[in-house]
Backbone:
């Protein structure tokens, strides 16, 4: 297949209590008796989008989507500055996924996701390998400090003008320090205008990094309603300022825990924000994974990347 499946609606959905006052939105679509597959969205904080359902044959798969804490239809919503972020960490999200699996009565599921979603999938799969049947990762990230530093400082060598604007969105005293942590502080400022301006500046930089991706979705980061944009940036800066609470290199070092789990890694050669080296290193450490490099694709995809995703999902559907 080269085109996604037609739009479908969920046959079940709900809000799952996961503790600390949080409820995560989940839904299932496709075949109730089909092969379970979990879609793990990017961001972090990029919930609310449902298009990934269309990568799965609804006659074959039981398709599970969920919104991670604080975003999409999960409650409470991180756009509200009163919402405490202390209980929104990678560790919480891993356990939310496992709690959802148990809630839905699923023994093992395929995991599918891209960008930040690939980090969270790896963290979950290395914790619970017996609960994972296969993995499909797109635009691979492991949220190592070097990756965050590259995205918010290193890429400036290719985009000096937009990066200077991004940096100058901070108070002058913070422009030579940790930019991500400084933006996180702005996203928790009591002044709503400060938060809104910081969110727009953050997404303008993200959009500049993908602006060359004419076959994908240039402008994808800013293309969100106001509340979703605020939650997205607040959660992103919260996670990246804390290196996602993952010890540096841990996901790569513990890739041996994925032995026996078939995987497909799909990465665009033109991905400026998350360079191909990430996927290549993971493929070296995970013998059961195959790496597909898409020459004309960046971070947000292309027709060839879409076809490669559809092929991987279809192949695993026949297992």
Residues:
């Amino acid at each position: 297949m080269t085109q996604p499946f037609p739009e479908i609606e969920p046959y079940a959905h709900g809000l799952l209590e996961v503790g600390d006052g949080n409820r995560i939105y989940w839904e299932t679509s496709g075949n109730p008796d089909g092969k379970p597959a979990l879609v793990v969205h990017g961001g972090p904080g990029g919930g609310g989008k449902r298009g990934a359902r269309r990568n799965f044959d609804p006659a074959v798969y039981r398709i599970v989507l969920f919104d991670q804490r604080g975003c999409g239809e999960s409650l409470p919503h991180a756009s509200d500055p009163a919402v405490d972020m202390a209980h929104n960490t990678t560790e919480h999200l891993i356990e939310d996924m496992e709690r959802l699996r148990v809630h839905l009565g699923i023994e093992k599921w395929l995991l599918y996701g891209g960008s930040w979603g690939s980090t969270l999938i790896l963290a979950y799969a290395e914790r619970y390998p017996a609960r994972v049947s296969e993995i499909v990762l797109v635009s691979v990230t492991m949220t190592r400090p070097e990756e965050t530093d590259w995205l918010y400082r290193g890429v400036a060598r290719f985009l000096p003008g937009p990066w200077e604007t991004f940096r100058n969105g901070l108070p002058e005293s913070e422009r030579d320090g940790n930019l991500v942590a400084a933006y996180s502080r702005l996203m928790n400022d009591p002044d709503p205008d400060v938060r809104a301006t910081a969110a727009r500046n953050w997404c303008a930089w993200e959009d500049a990094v993908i602006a060359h991706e004419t076959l994908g979705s240039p402008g994808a980061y800013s293309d969100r309603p106001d509340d979703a944009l605020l939650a997205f940036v607040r959660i992103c800066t919260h996670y990246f300022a804390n290196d996602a609470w993952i010890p540096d290199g841990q996901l790569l070092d513990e890739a041996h825990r994925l032995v026996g789990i078939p995987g497909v890694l799909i990465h665009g050669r033109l991905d400026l924000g998350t360079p191909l080296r990430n996927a290549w290193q993971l493929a070296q450490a995970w013998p059961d994974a195959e790496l597909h490099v898409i020459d004309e694709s960046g971070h947000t995809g292309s027709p060839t990347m879409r076809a490669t995703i559809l092929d991987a999902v279809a192949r695993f559907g026949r297992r």
The mean pLDDT is 97. Residues 192-210 form the longest helix (19 residues).
